[in-house]
Amino acid sequence: MKRLFALAICGCAVAEAAFGGNMNCGLWFDDKGHHINAHGGGILKDGDEWYWFGEHKIYGDFGNRAYVGVHCYSSKNLVDWTDCGIALSVTNEVGHDIESGCIIERPKVIHNAKTGKYVMYFHLELKGKGYKTARVGIAVADKVTGPYRFLKSLQPNGYESRDQTVFVDNDGAAYHFFSSNHNQTMRIIRLSDDYLLHTKTEAIMADGDKTEAPAICFKDGWYFLIGSGCTGWMSNPARSYRARSIMGPWERLENPCVRVNPANGLGPERTWGCQSTFILKVADDDYIAMFDMWCPKNAVDGRYAWVPVTFTKGGKIKVIWKDVVDPRAVGN
Ligand code: GAL
Description:
Elements: H1 2-9, E1 22-23, E2 39-46, E3 49-55, E4 69-75, E5 82-89, E6 103-111, E7 118-125, E8 135-141, E9 149-154, E10 164-168, E11 174-180, E12 185-191, E13 198-205, E14 212-219, E15 222-228, E16 239-243, E17 251-253, E18 257-258, E19 275-283, E20 286-293, E21 303-311, E22 317-320, E23 324-325
Parallel strand pairs: 18-22
Antiparallel strand pairs: 1-23, 2-3, 3-4, 4-5, 6-7, 7-8, 8-9, 10-11, 11-12, 12-13, 14-15, 15-16, 16-17, 19-20, 20-21, 21-22
């Protein structure tokens, strides 16, 4: 019943899976039988478990605002997910940066090996201001699942910050990537050693491209970034970039998406109806690109598509659609 109900009220309904692995853009259930509520998310491996953090959405077309916070799930196999509850909660305190009804998007958590802290970065828009305040929020926790304590929100080095991610490089240095300058430009700023401050080491990429939804990985000497264009909740063609050094120069490559999602007939021209959020390194040669299929009329019913990443001999990144993804089989 629950599945039928969810499908019936979502304009983005797609065929439901006969389950084996998770059906891309279908309903993905947690250990309590609820559709996973971790949109615009990212994954951190800690010990032998994976932790998925994402936006907790609620029903209805106002469900994209943050009335709950950032949800966390854990898994040992990337298929069966246990609800770990709300890692970062919004507050009822009037005027607080993360007052209930603000916008919290694209949360990403990284672990600082030196301080032992878990640090969460997210796009924050203050309550009642639409997307005008363009800030990044930073929260910190002693345990991976939280509770995360809100530290501050700011415009990094004075720049607007909307769609964003954080990436930890091979040497442990972390970088904040964010859409800036009315989303025209993607900025990159190196974080301090404790990951809590933006340093003065900064660069720009994709200048004038209006790239959003950044998702980054490193493979065989190349940094890759997959992103989207800038059309709100509506899907658009993805784009990819590569660089030899994380601070650039970044070279624009083609749309990395290949094949059609048969459930909705959409292919690379609409990123299968989805938008990128994160690239997960599962193992040395196995990477998964994580996408959201937004459902703006009923935000909580947004879906997920995890598509295996392929790296070509020519140093390009490709994401070839598969209907069902079982991360245990990626690369096999
Ligand atoms: C998208 C962005 C989402 C959300 C949405 C609001 O472009 O990637 O994270 O901000 O716009 O319309």
